[in-house]
Amino acid sequence: MDVLEKIDRLRLERGWSVNNLAMEAMLTQSTLNNLYSRHAEPKLSTLRAICAAFGITLAEFFEEEESSDAELLRRVRSLSEEQKRGLLSLLREK
Known about the structure:
single chain, 94 residues, mainly alpha, 7 helices
């Protein structure tokens, strides 16, 4: 698995720019730009910050095949509180 490709996929799923990811992960934009320009693997502390921004654990990041339960949890975690309340309301109607 290419770590940078996975970060990009998760970032784009959220509609985030590299700058958005840097802000959410509380990293400098130059840190992320350096990773991409060098095609380097991030340090563990950097990857932890990125995973926290995505609302996932390191274990979830490295899962090869995402189960539907894991995908659902990941997607719910990325919702705003208002969106979560709306989803919960919808689910209660079913």
